From TrEMBL:
InterPro entries: AAA+_ATPase, ABC_transporter-like_ATP-bd, ABC_transporter-like_CS, P-loop_NTPase. It comes from the Bacteria. The lineage of its organism: Bacteria, Pseudomonadati, Bacteroidota, Flavobacteriia, Flavobacteriales. GO terms for molecular function: ATP binding. This is ATP-binding cassette domain-containing protein. Keywords: ATP-binding, Nucleotide-binding, Transport. The keyword Protein biosynthesis does not apply. Transmembrane segments: none annotated. Residues 18-256 form the ABC transporter domain. Pfam families: ABC_tran (PF00005).
């Protein structure tokens, strides 16, 4: 009850920044992955989405930024229904929504500096060289990797690549961040560091986030609220503490 009250305190006066209503997505003739997803992300909230493999977690957040187009339903991002936006309008929304891919998706032929430089110039043609340098140094400092500025991605560990991927997302100052399995493939210590970084970013930058994960330690540390998907729909939701004590055997299986 105490944990729930804390969440209400944080979100009761804040507007939703993402609203998904009755989202469906089918691949091929009969692979109906999303079967009516309903989801709300409140401003300033870290929402963790759990579910077994193949339940549509990653598909859902890719639909949010238009990387995959939903077949039916409504997706409102910062008040705009992205299902009905043209490419130019959608790109304006995407700048406000950072997406951290599982692989970090860095350009291997570019140094860390060049990866961040490319991202800034792509979205701001008028930015000066001094501003670029300042922004790059500031964002690398915020993820604890100022010394990696001239390294190539091949010289970085998995955890460092995740941090640089996050830096590239943060450099555009998004209002929303979507994390797709941010700790996958990392050791326990590095996973905890990434989870703590997600939490500090939320507090310092006032971001709203959806975190797709199988890592229950990450979920426990970062989640204000958790949704669990099952067979293409939201099966249940609650705080970590509430779901851990659920009388539903299937729900409890995530916490063992």
């Amino acid at each position: 009850m105490v944990a729930q009250q804390t969440l209400e305190d944080r979100t009761e006066d804040k507007n939703p920044v993402i609203e998904i209503n009755n989202l469906h997505k089918t691949f091929g003739a009969d692979n109906h992955v999303l079967k009516g997803i309903n989801l709300t992300l409140n401003k300033g909230e870290d929402l963790v989405v759990l579910g077994k493999s193949g339940t549509g977690k990653s598909i859902t957040i890719k639909c949010i930024v238009g990387l995959i187009k939903g077949d039916e339903g409504e997706i409102k991002v910062l008040g705009q229904d992205i299902m009905n936006l043209n490419t130019k309008e959608l790109n304006k929304i995407r700048v406000k929504v950072g997406f951290l891919f599982q692989s970090a998706a860095l350009y291997d032929s570019m140094s860390v500096r060049e990866n961040l430089d490319f991202t800034l110039r792509r979205h701001n043609e008028d930015i000066s060289e001094e501003e670029i340098t300042s922004e790059i140094e500031e964002v690398l400092e915020s993820v604890g990797l100022a010394e990696a500025i001239d390294k190539m991605p091949s010289e970085l560990s998995g955890g460092m690549r995740k941090r640089i991927g996050l830096a590239r997302t943060l450099i555009l100052k998004p209002e929303i961040i979507l994390y797709d399995e941010p700790t996958t493939g990392l050791d326990t210590v590095t996973s905890k560091e990434i989870s703590e970084l997600i939490l500090s970013i939320q507090k310092e930058r006032k971001t709203s986030s959806i975190i797709i994960t199988h890592d229950m330690a990450c979920a426990k540390l970062t989640a204000d609220r958790i949704l669990i998907l099952k067979e293409g729909v939201v099966y249940t939701e609650g705080t970590y503490e509430e779901l851990e004590k659920s009388e539903d055997e299937w729900v409890r299986s995530f916490f063992i």
